Amino acid sequence: MSLWIQTAVAVAESGSPAIAAKVLSKNITTVYRHLDSLEHSLGTKIFNRKNTGWTLLEEASVLLNTGKELEKVLLNAEKELRETLDKTEGVIRIAVSHDFAFHYLAPRLRAFCDKNDGIRLEVIVNNQFTDLETGAADVAIRPDNNPGDSLIGRRVGTMNHAFYASDDYLKRHSEPITLTTNNHSFCGYGQEIADYSAAKWLDSHIEEKQIITRFNDTNVMTNAVISGLGIGLLPCFVGDNLENVQAVLTTEDAIPVDIWLVAAETSRDRSKVKVFFDYFAEMIHADHDVLMGKPYLNQM
């Protein structure tokens, strides 16, 4: 109803729906619709509609004063809201997958917080896409080649995958030469993360009987690889930093996955979101070699 009252005030002050439409940057059809809706809601006419001009009925004159006060309140509220959104302080809720949060993001958060002491972070860890459109998080770091069409995003890097096995596993088995080498077992991705690029690649290149165990959490799968359960297809920034684990079965296909910083349309202009985007875009770009992986850097 506030829009209807704003329209009525503009018509009362100008004496003309056409002039009010220009003042409000609306088409005249919208002005008439607002006025009709307001009068219908009040159950009474509030204007003398004459060719010489529109004037408020005497009993509706209170609407003019009240409408002006309401307009001031709305303008002040809008100003306060914009000032709040423009502040580079407050909480940023970041949605991120388990492995990226644990192995990459967490060790780098301190540097961001030290540089931006007015911003507090809330990290939401989930292997499924968090719905930014509903406000479940402000931004997301998505290692995915399809981050979501309805979001505002920036592609900031690429990460590769490679096969890794523990020293203990390799002591008990000969080093694999090909994916189909007999007597080798692989740790697979579970149903909940079957859409991961690495999961799709693995399932299309090895037989089901070669999968010794499937996991719906990449961190648990990584621990299984460390323990010597089987060979794992892991992001290079994870596998390269594991103790007593080494890369095996280097393939020509690095299984590259794009890394995106994304936000909902409603968050794109918030200063704190811009600060986050700029900082982590620069950091991920600087970590190009870490994300590319030692097995592929050694091929260059």
CATH-wise, what's the superfamily of the largest domain? Periplasmic binding protein-like II
Quote the CATH topology of the largest domain. D-Maltodextrin-Binding Protein, domain 2
Q: Please mark out the parts with pLDDT under 50 across 5 or more consecutive residues, or reply none.
A: none
Oligomeric nature of the chains: single chain
Task: Give the amount of beta strand, in percent.
Answer: 15-25%
Mean of residue pLDDT?
85
User: Can you give the helix content as a percent range?
Assistant: 40-55%
Give me the strand/helix succession: HHHEEHEHHEEEEHEHEHEHEEHHH
Shape: elongated
Architecture of the largest domain in CATH?
A: 3-Layer(aba) Sandwich
Major sheet, described briefly? 5 strands, mixed
Q: Count the beta strands.
A: 12
Structural summary, described in words:
With 300 residues, the protein is an alpha/beta fold. The chain has three domains: 85 residues, Arc Repressor Mutant, subunit A (Orthogonal Bundle); 100 residues, D-Maltodextrin-Binding Protein, domain 2; 88 residues, Periplasmic binding protein-like II (D-Maltodextrin-Binding Protein, domain 2, 3-Layer(aba) Sandwich). The protein has 13 helices and twelve strands. The N and C termini lie far apart (66 Å). The longest helix is centred in the first third of the chain and has 26 residues. The strands form three sheets. It has a five-stranded mixed beta sheet. Strands 9-8-10-7-11 form a five-stranded mixed beta sheet, sandwiched between helices.
